[in-house]
User: Which sequence fits this backbone?
C-alpha cells in the first residue's frame, strides 16, 4: 500500500492488544479500514469481535499498541467527540424504551444542540432512508416489530452523518426474511453513503454479502484479512471450516 | 362519649395535629430523599461504597425508634427543638428504602441500553438524567412510597418527645385509658398512610410503564 496514493485509513489498528485481568482478549491486531470500505469482522463468540469494536469508540482502550481513528489515537481523542462521530448499531437496536422513535433517532442531533426544525427535518429524512413510515414517529420501541426497531437503530446511528459506522451483530435478532431484506438494503445504503463501515457478525453468508473485505478472528487473533473474492478461495483451515459449516445451508439441488 | 363525638368536638385539634403529622412525615421523607437518592446514585458509580452505605442505613433501621429519639437528644441545635429531632430521626429511618431503591432501580436498567447511550456519545450526566433516572424512576418512587408510609407510622411516636402530631392523641388516650382518644389519633394516621400509599402507588405504576412503554 502506497501511503501517498491511497486515502488515510479512517480506522487503523496498530499492533493493538487488549487484556482483561491478565487474559488476552485481543492480540496485536493489525487492521485498517478506508473511507467507503466495508470490513466484516467474522468470528465465533468470544473471538474478540466486540472487543475490537469497543476499542474503536473508546469504550475500551488498548492495553498495548494503538488504535487510530482519522489518524489520531483514540487515547488522544475526547471520548465524547469521538463517539459522536461514530455511528453504532447493536442487536435489537439498543433503543431507549422511554423515547419515541423520533426522539431515539434525534438523540445525537439533540445532544449536539441542533436547532429543532433541523432535527425534525433530519428525522423525516432518515425515516425515509431506512424505509419506515412517518406514522411510526411517535411510537415507542416496544410498539414496533423487530425489523422496525432495527431500522430505527440504523437511522439513529446515521443521524449526525458520522463518517464511520460500526455494527455489532446488527441483524442478528431478526427472522431470516427480514434479515435478508435488511442486508440488501444496508448494502444499497452503503453504496450511496460510502462510509467506513465495520460490521461484526458470525454469519458467513452475511459477511460474503456485505463485505469488501473479511477479517477472520479467532481467540483474539487475526487469522486472515482478505478481499471478499479471495476469502472463499483461501486455503486457511479455519476459513475452510467456515465455508464447510455454511455450505450445507446453501443446498444447491 | 363516642369516637365521632370526640372527633367533632375536638375537630380543630384533630386538624392541627393531622397537619403537624403531615409536616413531620413529609419534611422527613423529603429530607431523606434529598440525601438518599444522591447517595443511591453515588454507590452505583463507586461500587466499593455500596456495602458500607447500605449496611449503615440498615443498621439505623435496627435501632428502636424511641431509643433513636433518645440518642439524638444531646445533639446540638437538633436537640433544642422536639420537631427538629423528630424529623431527623424519621429521615434516618426513611433513608434505607430510598438508597436501596435508587441503587436497585439504576442497576435494573438494561445494560445494553446504557452502553448504547455511552457509545452514542452521551456524557455521564446525560446518561444519568436522560436514561438511567427516567428508567429507574418507577423503582425510586416505590422507595419513596415505602419511606412515606414508614414515616407516617413512626411519626406517631414523635409525640413521646413532645414533637406533636397525631401521636398526641394516642399517648393521651393511653394515659387516660380511653380508647376513643387513642382512635382519634390512630385512625387519621392510618388513613394518611393508606392515602399516601395509594397516591404514590399510582405514580409508581405510571413511571414503571416507561420501562416497557405500552
Assistant:
Amino acid at each position: 500500500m502506497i501511503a501517498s496514493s491511497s486515502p488515510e485509513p479512517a480506522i487503523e489498528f496498530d499492533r493493538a492488544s487488549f487484556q482483561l485481568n491478565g487474559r488476552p482478549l485481543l492480540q496485536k491486531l493489525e487492521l485498517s479500514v478506508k473511507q467507503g470500505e466495508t470490513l466484516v469482522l467474522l468470528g465465533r463468540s468470544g473471538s474478540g469481535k466486540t472487543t475490537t469494536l469497543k476499542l474503536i469508540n473508546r469504550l475500551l482502550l488498548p492495553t498495548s499498541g494503538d488504535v487510530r481513528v482519522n489518524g489520531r489515537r483514540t487515547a488522544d481523542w475526547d471520548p465524547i467527540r469521538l463517539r459522536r462521530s461514530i455511528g453504532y448499531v447493536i442487536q435489537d437496536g439498543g433503543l431507549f424504551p422511554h423515547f419515541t422513535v423520533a426522539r431515539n433517532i434525534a438523540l445525537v442531533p439533540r445532544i449536539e444542540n441542533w436547532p429543532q426544525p433541523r432535527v425534525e427535518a433530519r428525522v423525516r429524512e432518515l425515516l425515509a432512508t431506512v424505509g419506515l413510515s412517518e406514522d411510526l414517529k411517535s411510537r415507542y420501541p416496544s410498539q414496533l416489530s423487530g425489523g422496525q426497531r432495527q431500522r430505527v437503530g440504523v437511522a439513529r446511528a446515521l443521524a449526525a452523518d458520522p463518517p464511520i459506522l460500526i455494527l455489532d451483530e446488527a441483524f442478528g435478532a431478526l427472522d431470516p426474511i427480514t434479515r435478508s431484506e435488511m442486508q440488501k438494503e444496508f448494502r444499497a445504503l452503503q453504496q450511496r453513503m460510502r462510509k467506513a463501515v465495520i460490521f461484526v457478525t458470525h454469519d458467513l453468508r452475511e459477511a460474503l454479502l456485505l463485505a469488501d473485505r473479511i477479517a477472520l478472528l479467532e481467540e483474539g487473533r487475526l487469522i486472515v484479512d482478505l478481499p471478499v473474492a479471495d476469502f472463499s478461495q483461501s486455503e486457511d483451515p479455519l476459513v475452510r471450516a467456515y465455508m464447510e459449516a455454511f455450505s450445507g445451508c446453501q443446498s444447491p439441488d | 362519649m363516642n369516637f365521632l363525638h370526640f372527633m367533632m368536638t375536638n375537630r380543630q385539634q384533630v386538624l392541627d395535629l393531622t397537619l403537624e403529622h403531615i409536616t413531620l412525615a413529609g419534611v422527613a421523607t423529603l429530607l431523606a430523599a434529598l440525601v438518599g437518592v444522591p447517595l443511591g446514585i453515588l454507590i452505583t458509580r463507586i461500587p466499593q461504597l455500596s456495602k458500607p452505605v447500605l449496611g449503615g442505613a440498615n443498621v439505623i433501621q435496627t435501632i428502636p425508634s424511641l431509643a433513636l429519639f433518645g440518642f439524638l437528644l444531646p445533639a446540638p441545635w437538633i436537640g433544642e427543638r422536639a420537631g427538629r429531632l423528630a424529623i431527623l430521626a424519621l429521615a434516618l429511618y426513611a433513608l434505607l428504602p430510598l438508597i436501596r431503591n435508587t441503587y436497585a432501580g439504576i442497576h435494573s436498567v438494561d445494560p445494553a441500553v446504557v452502553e448504547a447511550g455511552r457509545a452514542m456519545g452521551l456524557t455521564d450526566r446525560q446518561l444519568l438524567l436522560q436514561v438511567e433516572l427516567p428508567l429507574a424512576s418507577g423503582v425510586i418512587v416505590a422507595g419513596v412510597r415505602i419511606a412515606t408510609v414508614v414515616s407516617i407510622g413512626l411519626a406517631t411516636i414523635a409525640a413521646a418527645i413532645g414533637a406533636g402530631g397525631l401521636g398526641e392523641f394516642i399517648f393521651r388516650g393511653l394515659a387516660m385509658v380511653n380508647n376513643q382518644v387513642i382512635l382519634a389519633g390512630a385512625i387519621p394516621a392510618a388513613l394518611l398512610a393508606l392515602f399516601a400509599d395509594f397516591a404514590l402507588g399510582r405514580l409508581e405504576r405510571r413511571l414503571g410503564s416507561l420501562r416497557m412503554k405500552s
